[in-house]
What does this fold into?
Amino acid sequence: MLHIKVLGSGCPNCKRLEAEVRAALDGGAVAYDLVKVTDYADIAAYGVMSTPALVIEEQVVSSGRIPKRDQIVAWVRQYEGNAL
It folds into this structure.
């Protein structure tokens, strides 16, 4: 199972990133667990200075923006060996 985290305070952009991740991955062949991280200390522990941020398998792949769905899928493929 792929571990994905959305880092952010719960702002509209953070919620939009979560929705984009779910839209990109739902219906695919990848099992994933999505966790929202809202605690500022936990967010800072990833070295993220701008939210929303996306973490896949404990690696920050994006921060300060909402990536397009195809980019999210590409990152997931990197970690899942083209499972989608």
Observations:
- Residues 12-25 form the longest helix (14 residues).
- The beta strands are 2-7, 32-37, 53-56, 59-63.
- The mean pLDDT is 93.
- The radius of gyration is 12 Å.
